[in-house]
Write a structure and sequence with these properties.
mainly alpha; two-stranded antiparallel ribbon; globular
Length: 261
């Protein structure tokens, strides 16, 4: 209930900055539009590249862009500031987790952003309706939704882990930026992994980033090799990453000095 109240209060706050939200969404949409146009140039007169048609590229980047507001976020630095400024002092003696609190605030921001982004998504989809064709069975739709949910959980754990590194580091933004760079390259946000050099594909297979965006979007496009296997790998990475997070959290609390707040 306490986190639900935080969610509602954050929504009320974010609604006061609707213009900023729209501008952020437009800014975020520029990069994928440029990437789609770039792939259109690469395609030229060909019908596909690496198994991706024009419609696939449009759907891929639309899913990645608007999926960001469902799956991803940037709350690691909020957690870092809470630790650095001593905001978490009071939460240590109450049944209130500072990491969950920042995560809930981020979810509220993403919820409002998604509501604003949906009309834009509808317009863009309508404009490219002659290219965009997604045909999935009921089972595929269900597995895609599960995969996106697992990707969101995995991303949240990664962000939380980066955030609590503030127990040791004065500034965590370089780590957060590095993680985002890895998400772009090894997570398939920059380009579909199957179109990347083999080396990048092999490295990506052993990192969690691939299982945040690329796997769910591949399922959406019906390009997943083995959906059940990929879902299993998502679960494994969630368990492993949560284990790492728990170890870092416990070690961090032992050295936390509680200055400020």
């Amino acid at each position: 209930m306490k986190y639900w109240r935080t969610f509602l209060l954050t929504i009320q706050t974010e609604l006061q900055y609707r213009a900023n939200l729209v501008l952020w969404i437009i800014e975020g949409a520029i990069a994928p539009v440029v990437m789609v146009l770039a792939w259109f140039v690469v395609l030229g007169n060909r019908s596909e590249v690496g198994g991706y048609t024009r419609g696939d590229f449009i759907t891929y980047y639309l899913a990645v862009t608007f999926g960001w507001y469902v799956v991803a976020g940037t709350f690691s630095q909020m957690i870092g500031r809470a630790i650095k400024m001593g905001e978490m002092n009071i939460t240590l003696v109450k049944p209130y987790n500072v990491v969950l609190e920042k995560m809930v605030r981020e979810q509220a921001w993403k919820f409002i952003s998604l509501l604003i982004a949906l009309p834009i998504l509808a317009v863009v989809t309508y404009m490219f309706r002659s290219y965009v064709t997604v045909s999935l069975s009921g089972v595929q739709i269900f597995m895609t939704m599960v995969s996106f949910a697992l990707g969101a959980i995995l991303f949240a754990i990664i962000e939380a882990t980066i955030g609590i590194l503030a127990f040791w580091f004065v500034e965590i933004w370089p780590i957060a930026d590095t993680s985002m760079a890895c998400m772009n390259v090894f997570g398939g946000m920059l380009a579909p992994l199957t179109l990347m050099p083999i080396f990048f594909q092999r490295v990506a297979a052993y990192l969690p980033f691939k299982y945040v965006f690329f796997v769910p979007v591949s399922m959406l496009l019906g390009k997943g090799d083995n959906a059940s296997f990929e879902l299993g790998l998502q679960v494994i990475f969630i368990v492993v990453c949560f284990g790492i997070y728990s170890l870092i959290w416990r070690a961090g609390l032992k050295r936390y000095e509680g200055i400020g707040g």
